[in-house]
Amino acid sequence: MFSLTEKDRPIVQLLLNTGTCPRCILRFRCVGSQTIYRRPYRDLMKDLEEFLKNNQEKEDTVCCDVVDPPCKRIRLEHTEGPDDMNYNGALQQIPSVNDENTAVENSAVKVCNVCLGILQEFCEADFVKMVCQKVNSADYQFTSFVFSVSLPPQLSVRERAAWLLVKQEMGKLGLPLAKDDIVQLKEAYKWIIHPQLSEELGVPADGKSLFEVSVVFAHPETEEECHFLATACPDCFKPAKNKQSVFTRMAVIKALEKIKEEDFLKHFPCPPSSPKDLCVALDIQCNNGAVFVAGRYNKYSRNLPQTPWIIDGERKLESSVEELISEHLMAEFKADSFNFSSSGREDVDVRTLGNGRPFAIELVNPRRIHFTAEEMKALQQTINNSSDKIQVRDLQLVTRSAIGRMKEGEEEKTKTYSALIWTDKAIQKEDLAFLDDIKELKLDQKTPLRVLHRRPLAVRCRIIHTMKSEYIDEHHFRLHLKTQAGTYIKEFVHGDFGRTKPNIGSLLNRTADILELDVESVDVDWPPALDD
């Protein structure tokens, strides 16, 4: 139910005379019932006409009773004949009950001077069907949706002008009207559109849904109406790299908060003039929230970088761990793009063995989001069959928050390595025995020369927890190390021109270098292991 009293009569008449649509009139009369806004446009117009025609012998209050229906679209077919359902001219076909009342009749056929048609044409069933056709053709998986709308910034200017008009009229009656008392245009539009979209799509509207349907409106005819604000409030309009125009909705709202009422009225008509054209729906977009896939990978090649190796625009190697995994995920999830992360990284010539290195991939705007455990296992097998350079295990869907556990392990956990080492001077097995007895060896590692171009210069304290040597011949031995995460192993072996102290060379009192390095374990207990 909504009610208008005798004191509302001059306001309603004034707004109708100036070309305001019924739903905007309800907004400016602070009517907060969602159900009322969902009623067919012609019914609302009839209600206002009847209200204005009432004489003083009738009750001061006119009530329009509406039973709140379930969250379903009110079908306009019940009030319109089949010939009336013309999307391009539905408003012009809505008749007036009282042909003698020119003001009321004109308000029925004109584009609203406040909402520019948003609460008129774009609440009709044909537009809703067009939106849903766009959604369905995009082939997304979703179980609910959130609807967002982008309005032309000049709507805020027109809204301000209409508010000043109504506030002035109410002031004559000794009644206040704060800006916050008015029902916001976006809010009213969503009240109307949500049930219709929900019925057409067959899923509920949910403000927390990860699937977003968005509509971008524009009104070229009036797009310059907010430009006067740039002169009045220049500080509010600053160029931004990612914005095509300085006249964003937020900038306009900020300027409207600063400008004085008398200055506003000098530059903008009150009431706002009636436009010739409706708004246009510039774009209808769909977007699914990101999906996260995690697992562990083994890398068996000594000629494969973790991520694409590109220097000065030139690709150095044809593939990478990231690409070998993500190409299959991108295809199955039908995503726009991806972001790869892992618990640390290995050099291009380093293998990762054992139970592998934890990784996670964020799939941006995926069309497909539902996968069973069996389907994920099959996807894992597809990745493993595609290359002999890598293998993945424990492939699974995870949440964004769970990825934090992987990143925590980068610096806090331990890692185990196997290094093949060469020495310039001959060694005997006995020369290595003391290495096995060293525990918790503290290192000072200055940022290695090889990574100084991408890492800040610093001295980092790292710990070698244990070492175990394996003698091969007079110039070669294998060293198994358990270290703090973040330790530069290659530099610990050769010393990096004295930038890592102590190092294997200094401990053995001879020149040492590393020939091969393998990561044998990354001791991060994530993601959870899955049964084979």
Automatic annotation (TrEMBL):
Coiled coil: none
Catalytic reaction equation(s): uridine(55) in tRNA = pseudouridine(55) in tRNA; uridine(54) in tRNA = pseudouridine(54) in tRNA
Gene for this chain: Pus10
InterPro entries for this protein: PsdUridine_synth_cat_dom_sf (IPR020103), Pus10-like (IPR039894), Pus10-like_C (IPR048741), Pus10_N_euk (IPR048742)
Enzyme class, first EC level, given as a word: isomerase
Subcellular location, principal: cytoplasm
Keywords: Coiled coil, Cytoplasm, Isomerase, Metal-binding, Mitochondrion, Nucleus, tRNA processing, Zinc
Domain Pus10 N-terminal eukaryotes: residue ranges: 112-286
Name of the featured protein: tRNA pseudouridine synthase Pus10
Pfam families recorded: Pus10_C, Pus10_N_euk
Localization per Swiss-Prot or TrEMBL: Cytoplasm; Mitochondrion; Nucleus
GO-annotated biological processes: tRNA pseudouridine synthesis
Gene3D superfamilies named in the record: 1.10.10.2050, 3.30.70.2510, 3.30.70.3190
MF annotations from Gene Ontology: metal ion binding; RNA binding; tRNA pseudouridine(55) synthase activity
Ranges of residues in domain Pus10-like C-terminal: 292-523
Any one cellular-component term (Gene Ontology): nucleus
Domain of life: Eukaryota
Similarity comment: family membership: Belongs to the pseudouridine synthase Pus10 family.
